[in-house]
Design a protein that fits this description.
Layout: E1 5-10, E2 15-19, E3 24-27, E4 30-32, H1 39-50, E5 64-72, E6 91-95, E7 101-107, E8 113-120, H2 123-130, H3 139-149, E9 153-154, E10 162-163, H4 164-169, E11 176-182, E12 184-185, E13 190-191, E14 194-196, E15 202-203, H5 211-227, H6 235-266, H7 271-281, H8 285-296
Parallel strand pairs: 4-14
Antiparallel strand pairs: 1-2, 2-3, 5-8, 5-11, 6-7, 7-8, 9-10, 12-15, 13-14
Helix pairs in contact: 5-6
Bound molecules: flavin-adenine dinucleotide.
Flavin-adenine dinucleotide binds next to strand 5 and helix 5.
Amino acid sequence: MSKKVLTTKQGGNGIIIRCSDGTEYEGDILVGADGAHSAVRQNLYAELKSQNKLFPSDDAALPFNTICLVGQTRPLTTEEFPLLEKEECQFVRIVGNDKPFAWSTFTTMQGRICYSVVQFLNEESSKLHDSFRNSEWGPEAAGVMCDEVRHFPVISGGDKITTLGDLIDLTPKEYISKVMLEEKVFKTWYGGRTVLMGDACHKLSPAGGAGAGNALQDAVVLANYIHALPLHPVVEEIEAAFEAYKTDRIEWCEKAYATSKMLQSVVDKGIKPMIVRFMMRNMPEFMKRRAAEQMYSSRPQVAFLPLDETPASVKPTHQRSLNLKAPVEENDEVPAKAI
Ligand SMILES: Cc1cc2nc3c(=O)[nH]c(=O)nc-3n(C[C@H](O)[C@H](O)[C@H](O)COP(=O)(O)OP(=O)(O)OC[C@H]3O[C@@H](n4cnc5c(N)ncnc54)[C@H](O)[C@@H]3O)c2cc1C
């Protein structure tokens, strides 16, 4: 819709959002699925803070100690990048010996090379990058970091020495971004008629590859609770549904947060990451299985759609919201409207 939400205002009877183009929308419920720097969250937290209802830890800026450059080359030939000859994805990760960087490359079916460079920040360098926090993602912001990492070597599978600079030169500018890898699970997920989901309430390090999956699972569980609301819910009923949604989801998000944080630190320098790397390489099968069970056993389904019965090797855990039923509609009443 190309709308940018600026402010939200909620009361006993509904909620209004105002957008940057001057338009306004009114509804019964507002779902803030607007990412790590969520405007909905900022509005909600300002309101809760003024009522002394905000968890103190939620009043702090999103913490980060790593920044990341990500890019994707145009499709390459096997002469340009010989590892592309292999049918399986070739994933290579290099941990800098004398620099606070770790970088990875992997091949794709389309012949592109995806790469990411993670920079580990200390207290001083964190401050230097703080001003970047609110700026837009994009090629300009990435430019300085590209120059800094150009000479880092990458393994291409050929005899020719290849560097990240070569990959950067083979990348259309719009396919390079610099992002802050913030990490936090917020404690406040809702207030009144407003509820948060996805990165807006839990920002995970991408090292765990769990951010998008958890955002989708939030959406499924939240949809189940909203679907089961009475046709004309009062604020207390809406908040009870949001509390149930948070209870079902936060435990999984906290687990994913801890796993992602651990996986992020694996590429850091020092003795602890080295021990973790050794343990991961030599982990017995039964422990790998237990880790997989922890990561994949949360698989909520939509209660008001046909269930997916596909058998899986990891059994899904009990899902409370699966038993919820929508209220029976009488005289074609219109149910609560979510924005
Ligand atoms: C480098 C990197 C690699 C990643 N790799 C993985 C991975 O391998 N696996 C994985 O599961 N996850 C990964 N993630 C995380 C994943 O991208 C996020 O967790 C996921 O996109 C969160 O979804 P979301 O819908 O909550 O937020 P977003 O995807 O951020 O979507 C928010 C949307 O809201 C819009 N928006 C923002 N502000 C406003 C506003 N004021 N008004 C209106 N609209 C607004 C934005 O334009 C955007 O479309 C990665 C993240 C990064 C940075």
